[in-house]
Amino acid sequence: MVQLAKQSKSNLRGIVLKHPFLLVMLSITLFAPLSLGQQANVASNMTASGPTAKTSRLSEAEQGRFDELRQRGFEALYNLDYEEARRNFKELARLFPDHPAGPQFLAASLWAQTLNESRRLQSGLYNSDSFYANNEDKVDPRTVAQFREWTRAAKLLAEARLKRDRQDTEALYFLGATEGLKAAFATAVQRSFMGALKDGQNSVDRHREVIKLDPNFHDAELTIGLYDYVVGALPLPVKLLASITGARGSKKRGLQTLERVAHEGRFAQDDARALLIILYKREERFNDALTVARELSAKYPRSYLLKLEAADALVSQAAVERQAGRSNEATSAQREALSIFNDLLRSNTTRDTASRALDLIHFRYGEALLAGGQKEQAAKEFLAAASVQGAEQNLATMAHLRAAQALDLAGKRNEAISQYRVVLARPNVYDSQDEAKQGLRAPYELKAQEKSVQE
Fold first, then answer.
1. What's the pTM value of the predicted model, to 2 decimals?
2. Residue-wise over 359-368: b if at least 16 C-beta within 10 A, else e?
3. Which residues have a Cβ under 8 Å from the Cβ of 252 and sit 6 or more positions away?
4. Residue 264 confidence class, pLDDT cut points 50, 70, 90
5. Could you tell me the CA-to-CA distances from 370 to 31, 374, 400, 408 in Å, in that order?
6. Which among 48, 25, 26, 99 is positioned nearest to 211, based on CA atoms?
């Protein structure tokens, strides 16, 4: 049996890169940051409320200042204002130098900003298995060094408290959150998937310990709920293999746990809601995803990402209505989605983050138009994405590819060929050059599921 377990672990490593959902499980906090950039890492000294809860001793005034800085910092982070977020987190670290929160929050803000600048905070960009190829992205070494410095500091501070008291639930929580953050950085920023295995699992294990010590510490259930969902959603052969190594889960239980955090958590409520948007869409519960996206968007109006998530849910809902023959409902949902894109593109205020992400907005607008069968208009939006001054270069390459495919579908073969050649002249992004070569050999055709969406 021991030999079987060892062999299973070896096999698991061999197939892990072929199943994006398994990668999410192993990095455990991935989709919270991929969708919106917030992680369940914001417990304060008063989070634990059960009889076994252990907290650091802060005066009432100190506790109030701690909570104020945390709240202001994360409100800025949700609104994608990273400089303001870090100003608050640095002040928190200065005032509470023995608390792991300051450096952990700073590391989370750096990670979220890095993802946003590489246009990886919008969940719809992660549908291609090619993203999960076994190679690492080049990341500014200064960013990596700063991230490691802050996570190392947070880990040491949490461990120092645990040496004094093994039942310090808050310290244990922050230790797990830091390990989860390290796994998420390795996965989503560096795309070093196997390197995230240990940290991702450790994060879940730490938070399970927290719940054993204090069942009312609901914020710690966020990683546990995500783990349950992801393991429960694995393909059956992978799930059976994973079970030999002790990994068991349930989609239903995972969703219920995340919903509990969304309703009963203290500081991780919005993080749970952010995750639920993604998981509801995976479950084709598009109305539920839209409801949550609207709620968060109203709370954090400067986040263009939340508006994009709402638009994406509407586009998906339109496809469902179209397949069911409810053309009026489909048209209404599609029209509302396109209205969101138009509003974002008209935004030009300095405080509105949309004005700094026009490449991504044009790209997602193109995807929405293509899903609605508006091929030529979609091609125009893809080309607009690639033409935005300062456009993220990987996204620009994908925009040229999608423009070529949309032009093929519109019957504009010569223009499509021109765009495929542009892709081949650029650095390879995921499998873009393979798709471009295929497009040069024969006109692009919609896959079966894409056809059903448009019909």
1. 0.81
2. bbbbbbbbbb
3. 232
4. very high
5. 25, 5, 14, 12
6. 48
